[in-house]
Amino acid sequence: MSPQPSTTTAEVTTADDPQPTAGTVVRLRPVVFATPTGTGVHVRGWSSSFTVSGGTGVWKVWQLLARQLAGGLSPQSLARPVRRPEVDRAVRLLLEQLREHDMLVEVPSGWGDRDDPGLPPADLARWLESVAADPAAAWDRLRSTTVTVAGTGPVAAAATRTLTGTGLTVDPSGGTGADTVVRAGDAAVAARCLAETGYVTPVAAPDEVTAHSAAIATRLTRDTDGPAVDGDPVAPALAALVGAAAAHRIVCTVAGLPDPAEEAATLPGGEPAAPAPHYPSALVARLDPVRATYHPWLPAARVPLPGTPADIDAVGLRLTALSDPELGELPPALPGDLPQLPAMLALAGPALGVAATADAARIDATLRYAETLLGLTGIRPVDDPVTPSPTSAVTTAAVGVDPRHAAGVALRRLVHAVGHRLDTVEVAEAEWATVPVARRWWKALTRRFGVPARVVAHRLPAGAVHAEIVTDDGPLAWAVEADAADAVALAALAATGVAQARAAGVAVPTGPVSLTGAAPTWLPGDPQLAPWTDDTWYWPAGVIDHEERLQQALRAALTTGGATLTGRPAVPDPADTGPADEDTHMIVHALAVTGFVTQGFQWTTDAASRGA
């Protein structure tokens, strides 16, 4: 129940309450501010806020409480009830909300108010009050730590100046490299300024940060003529920003505070901006205008635990880290100027993504480009033409958002490659032609874009359907699904997207393309959100429900007649290939730490069972 305090002024503490002179006091964090509302007060802090309603008297109670909390109240004083019950209810409610939103903090009496060699300077004291769970403990860690600044030039000078201002003991050790390395114990960061760009590495072990720095410099200058060399002028504003940011990261580490990158990734409501695993982030600063933002640096990340979320929203956040515009391993997938009807399109580098929704198109484009870079787009026979073997083998591989997706794509590719060797039955047109989603995308291809195509569909031994869109010039697209209508619809959607992109001037490589129902797509959480809709509005959202059964059917079809199906690594192991494939290893690592999966299969059959 909202309190109903009197509109008359009432003191929060009693007249004979002694003001604290020693021990611990409770204060309002300096970053807390309040605004009166028509019926109460709205209070906001660094990352959260709350509103208390109950009449105009709530604002007056807040003013008195905030004034006394700014100076500090002893815990005993806060626990003592106020004389007037209605005012006491308002005070208790306000204090309860302040604690719940982490807007109160305990500090030693006199904190930031008096010259005491055991207490921090006033400005540092206010900062620790604002951000630390225990400001006194954070200060004790800071003043007992010596920080080493290795480097020369304006970046090192800015870092030293910032650290000295916080009261830390600084040991400027000089240096000859391009980096300024700021180190405290086993934690360090490296900072560097290029011509118009600067950066600070994630906090890591001292022997790792210089390697990260060199790699970040290479990544930031991949579209230019190369990194700045020693002696190039550095803008004073950029050097001051980068040096201070490096000092800030180390100060937070020493004081036990959250890394600034974690704070920057927090939404105003106090919840993390990304439910996906937190990735080590580098600060990237640029001029014109001066700006600094944190970006995931995946080479410093560790492989996440199994069970990475694979819903469309979570995958989109993982994709953002993988394709960060500053430091991402892959280029971001963007719609650009491509038309977005009837199919949704996106381009990641030269790779075209096609889907029924924009998010799914971004995922499709990114994974296709990753497969292109890793050489996983083809279907490879492994027969030796020089030394014939009594067995025949075919391999396929894929990149997916999770193991099920990667396996589903790879199995479909294998079925498409060897389907002519399997016993199949032709599927009649009537089985799919009257289904709305299949009819929609078939009409989009043949009527809207005028493609003279036809459908060739066959049912596999275990019940799955392989559908192919073909013309007199050859195949355009294909799909393998549990249901004939879904297979035709996905194949027609893929062919439509290619025709749509070519009509917009995109140079799409020749050859058949495919889409699968194993990929995540969007579905409203509340089916009653739009009661006039049905499942066809959100297709292919429901196709993935058949994925487990479909993969079992594909495995059964591929192992008939004595054939074998075995899983295999999609890319070579780094220990087998050496440093020559460093780019490949970095891509594989980036995919792994963002939760994407590579999967390969090998299908083997003896010569007697080969098809004609």
Can you describe this structure in just a few lines?
Helices cover 36% and strands 20% of the residues. It is built from 19 helices and 23 strands.
Description:
This protein has 612 residues and is α+β, with helices and mostly antiparallel strands. The chain has 19 helices and 23 strands. The chain has a seven-stranded mixed beta sheet, sandwiched between helices. Helix 1 packs across helix 3 (85-100), helix 6 packs across helix 8 (236-255) and helix 12 (403-418) runs parallel beside helix 17 (547-558). The longest helix has 20 residues, at 236-255.
Largest sheet: 7 strands, mixed
Oligomeric state of this protein: single chain
Structural class by SSE content:
alpha+beta
Which stretches are low in confidence, meaning pLDDT under 50 for 5 or more residues running?
Answer: 1-21, 267-276, 383-390, 608-612
Anisotropy-based shape: globular
Neighbour order of strands in the largest sheet: 7-6-8-9-10-11-12
Rounded mean pLDDT is: 84
Q: How many beta-strand segments?
A: 23
Calculate Rg over CA atoms.
31 Å
Number of helices: 19
Distance between the termini: 81 Å
